Amino acid sequence: MATTPAPTTPAPSAVVELLKPLTWFAPMWAFACGVISSGQPAHGQWPVIAAGVVLAGPLVCATSQATNDWFDRHVDAINEPGRPIPSGRIPGRWGLYLAVGWTLLSLLVAAALGPWILGAALFGLVLAWIYSAPPLRLKKNGWWGNAAVGLCYEGLPWFTGAAVMAAALPDRRVLLVALLYSIGAHGIMTLNDFKSVEGDRRMGLLSLPVQMGSDRAARFACLVMAVPQVVVIGLLSAWERYGHAALVAALLAGQCALMVRFLKDPRERAAWYNGTGTTLYVLGMLVAAFALRPLVGGA
């Protein structure tokens, strides 16, 4: 019986799967929050905003996904052997070539948007590479790795969106709120680690569920997500944005109610909470962005 020869180049569908479009939502959403929080009118800026959204999601975030999958191919062969690289649908060193190519394309687009955006994109791309690639490979330890991803997924795109609109360093209040939501995203990244505990343990990757155990890591993730939101509520109240503060508080209360169910079985319900509690978390980001808009616009 004749056998089908192994592919020497990846199919377009495998490349799309490698770049993981579903993961683009978080940085694109954060970028939009940055645009809103800048206090600047969007009139006449839509081409720049659209380019920034593409930069945040299909370029920089996609680069991080390709880079991660290339350097994680041995772990994925244990945890998720059907992924494009371990399955052979991205053959040879094509995973590395795609990661490098997307990095260069991201830098070209960022350079066209101005020096603040280029600087932010360069910082994000460096984090993406050192997160996955040896010798630093920040993801070897959940404390450092989750912090890097949280910053890249929430704080940096928020900064970029605000900087695109202001064509300058964003207001300190914008930077503070973006930083707080980045810290909270550390907990979201811990939720993502529950799906790969066995492979991480076998390959020596010290994710927080591996280091702390599932129950303790789950409680810690919930705490890390909740505390920055409490601080945001306090800041919005101090800035006399009482309605927005109350809405963020209501969204946090909803997350806490969902956390109760999640904590009863973290391994089984991590993905569920990631789709429910995290949705409320990012809605709070949008509320905070709208709260900042008149403050910064009137500064």
Question: Nutshell version of this structure?
Answer:
With 299 residues, this protein is an all-alpha fold. The chain has helices spanning 12-19, 25-37, 46-71, 73-79, 94-112, 115-132, 142-166, 172-193, 197-203, 208-212, 214-238, 242-264, 266-297.
Nearest-angstrom radius of gyration?
20 Å
Shape: globular
Number of helices: 13
Helix percent reads: over 70%
**What is the rounded distance between the termini?**
74 Å
Protein structure class? mainly alpha
CATH top level label: Mainly Alpha
- Note poorly predicted spans: none
Q: How much is the average pLDDT?
A: 93
CATH topology title? Farnesyl Diphosphate Synthase
**Structural domain tally:** 1
Largest sheet descriptor: none
Give the oligomeric state: single chain
Proper CATH architecture: Orthogonal Bundle
Which sequence of SSEs, written as H and E, runs from N to C? HHHHHHHHHHHHH
Number of strands: 0
Give the percentage of residues in beta strands: under 5%
SSE map:
Elements (H helix, E strand, L loop, with lengths): L11 H8 L5 H13 L8 H26 L1 H7 L14 H19 L2 H18 L9 H25 L5 H22 L3 H7 L4 H5 L1 H25 L3 H23 L1 H32 L2
Helix pairs in contact: 2-3, 2-7, 2-13, 3-5, 3-6, 3-7, 4-9, 5-6, 6-7, 7-8, 8-11, 8-13, 11-12, 11-13, 12-13
